Amino acid sequence: MAVHGLRTYGLGRHQQIDDYQYGGSAGMVLMVEPLSNCIEDLKSKRQYDEIIYLTPDGERLNQSLSNRLSLKNNLLLICGHYKGIDERIREQYITLDISIGDYVLSGGELAAAVLVDTIGRLIPGVLNDETSALFDSFQDDLLAPPVYTRPAVFNNWEVPSILLSGNEAAIQDWQYEQSLKRTRERRPDLLSESEF
Question: Whole-prediction pTM value?
């Protein structure tokens, strides 16, 4: 992973990267020329599978999208700032717009960090146990089941006995039922009608 400062491609003595928007509306916009120069320079050094713009009007980030992106070799993330980026950059370069939620941040840097984390943990070798990510919430459109660790009893609060049984098939059935129950209670929007 590398971070490239847009001011390196800025214009003039002050390395300008933003300007007032046409039409007179409030808020600054990242300029087309510095962004285009940056993208072209980076593209001259490697091929990108996706050029992603982090924006509130993009496709909503979910586990399925992160899974898909984790299979790519090179991603270029564009972080908007102020009122965003000149639309011509979106039209000419951007292959995928991504939103991390229905809210606005001051810049796309935090959204990019979230995206990088959701993708990075899926890459083999990042997690100690590579199978761990396969059982996270949303991997199978369900929330993860409750988890427990030692001690088996604390303040008279007990771990469910099935988890101590050693019966792998029964444990998997219990975990699936708990995932389904938790999803019904907390995120019913993830379930089809047949799962109720």
Answer: 0.85
